């Protein structure tokens, strides 16, 4: 545990949220575990986002971990948490900063062609890395790093990029605590023996994918058949097969390519840590990165119809990775009744769009 980030203990308020806030019916977004609506402080009239979660162990974990992470400039901060009855359920009502600047890639898409440069991409990556390092320093793995969870606080140049949605976040376990009878040591997969390292490394893989898309406008792993997913694509993810195709990568620096390669290492033990990523000169000295114009916004615009499928596929790939981490008992996947896997089975068995 890094003493630079002391633990903030959460004690939800039991008073009614309506004493302090006016809640509207304006839906701002949908998180993994609950919807987000607009609310206003009665004292200041400042606008906030309110996330409503039915109380459960999962919801408590999400709010607790997000609350602990709320001291970072590049993480959406929680302002207040209430425990109230809502439609006859005990709910956690989480008041957060209102992010009005839109999603990261949406912002890039809106720029004129060629106006997004490698230096700007390096600055964006630096900001995301600050958030991830803050989390890893307090032993939290976010486990859901993706473009939709990276939002700007305001429109225009004064907006700050922030990470949100802690629905899959998990406290990482010290290796010393693993001497428990919850698995058979002879048969357990090697990565399960080190969940702290393995859990956190999931975030680094996701950072590598995000950085790749930032620099060219399409993902490193995609289906060659126009489908959201294909067996070939899954194999390329598992074996780490990706390239830097021309012309999009022609002028991108070798430093950037080497950093991506280090983050997209299929061996979690050899994958870069967040400390190594942050000390890499492309990130640490981002103001010195060349201002090379990128193809990113052009490719994002051209792939506008494909982009929701790409986002869905990133979500699905992350879900698979998370399921693997949580699979302490070595139960065959085909016999598992895991809800995420069931969802994936339904999607992969449903007829493909022609």
From TrEMBL:
The keyword Transferase applies. It catalyses: L-threonyl-[protein] + ATP = O-phospho-L-threonyl-[protein] + ADP + H(+); L-seryl-[protein] + ATP = O-phospho-L-seryl-[protein] + ADP + H(+). Residues 342-354 have a biased composition (Basic residues). Gene3D superfamilies: MAP kinase activated protein kinase 2, Phosphorylase Kinase, domain 1, Transferase(Phosphotransferase) domain 1. Residues 22-283 form the Protein kinase domain. GO terms for molecular function: ATP binding; protein serine/threonine kinase activity. Pfam families: Pkinase (PF00069). Its EC number is 2.7.11.1. Belongs to the protein kinase superfamily. CAMK Ser/Thr protein kinase family. PANTHER family: SERINE/THREONINE-PROTEIN KINASE. This is non-specific serine/threonine protein kinase.
